[in-house]
Amino acid sequence: MLFASVLICICFLGYLAQSTGLCMVRGVNEWKAGNKEFLLAILFSGILIWVAALFSHLAEFPVHFRTYPISIWLIFGGFIFGLGTAFNGSCGVSTLSRLTRGDSKMTATILGWLVGWTLLAYCSVNLNLVRSSSPIHINYLLLIIGSLVITIWALWGDKERKKLWFGMMGIGLLSGFIYLYQPKWPPSALFNHLSSALINQPNNWPLLEQYIYFVSLLIGMFLAAWRSKRFLFVPANIKHWVAHLLAGILMGTGASLAMGGNSVQLLLALPILSPAGFGAIAGMLLGIWSGLYARQYFKAIFH
After folding, report:
1. Listed residue (14, 276, 33, 20) closest to 163, CA to CA
2. Separation CA 92–CA 175 (nearest Å)
3. Which of 291, 268, 293 is nearest to 134 (CA)?
4. What is the pTM for the complete model shown?
5. 133 class by beta-carbon count within 10 Å (0-12 exposed, 13-18 middle, 19+ buried)
6. Nearest to residue 168, comparing CAs of 16, 24, 33, 26?
């Protein structure tokens, strides 16, 4: 029963991610165009994680939330991931959203993720991170106040503002409860285990549950795309495949260095105020900004 409930939550999370258009690349583009609200909504999407933490405390449920110290490797990994997302045109979450809308180029990006994770695992990079205890219990007040401020701000606005903020916060709320049951549900955990298994660590193959979680996420995204009549198959040529494969490799390598892609950072690390999460997100934003400017520069040269 609990497993089925988690699958439904993941499916609904995917539905919301597709419906809200969660994408850090889009957020940066809109910020550059003068609309800062979309990116802010993404950055604060996980603020309701305190609800899951409080529930775990009251129900005496084990908490899997952990914080990590900031590291130059994490910032660098976030930067590489950000560059990849800019060249890909979508972050990790929105890559899956585009795939379920029929964009076939995203299959090359996902393959690149696996290649990037595997390359870094093969190189055996040691980040020497020391896990620290979670400070979530001392941040209840800060998170609750932030949640109330955002709720009032959303209710004060128009229909679009309500849809944006409550949709983003809904994603974070669902994610918090899913993490309580299975911290290895995100796609980055799946690719991490796959990469380890591919370099002669047969005992590290992903659990069957992880594949099911991934499929459930895609189903939720597909249902949202189908319901909104946004599904349209988009074929890709060799040029597109190569470009998105390379972008995916950057994303996979960066996510491996940063201990997870943007979904992990936004929905877990950042809300529990992990220093590593702040460093990774800062690196990602810098990488996206740099990548977008690089794309404009090269387009100007070749055109």
Report:
1. 20
2. 15
3. 268
4. 0.92
5. exposed
6. 16
Q: Is 91 left (phi over 0), alpha (psi -120 to 50) or beta?
A: beta
Q: In this predicted model, what pLDDT tens digit does every residue of 141-180 receive, in sequence order?
A: 888 999 999 999 999 999 999 999 999 999 999 999 999 8
d(CA 24, CA 86): 9
Are 86 and 25 in contact by the 8 Å Cβ rule? The answer is yes
| Cβ burial, residue 59 (10 Å; 0-12/13-18/19+) | exposed
Hey, what are 261's tokens? 């892609």
Q: Which of 204, 192, 189 is nearest to 121 (CA)?
A: 192
Q: Which pair of structure tokens corresponds to residue 270?
A: 């950042």
Residues in Cβ contact with 286 at an 8 Å cutoff, skipping those fewer than 6 apart:
78, 79, 82
Give the burial class of 126: count Cβ atoms within 10 A of its Cβ; 0-12 exposed, 13-18 middle, 19 or more buried: exposed
Q: For residues 93 and 41, what is the distance between their CA atoms, to the nearest angstrom? A: 15
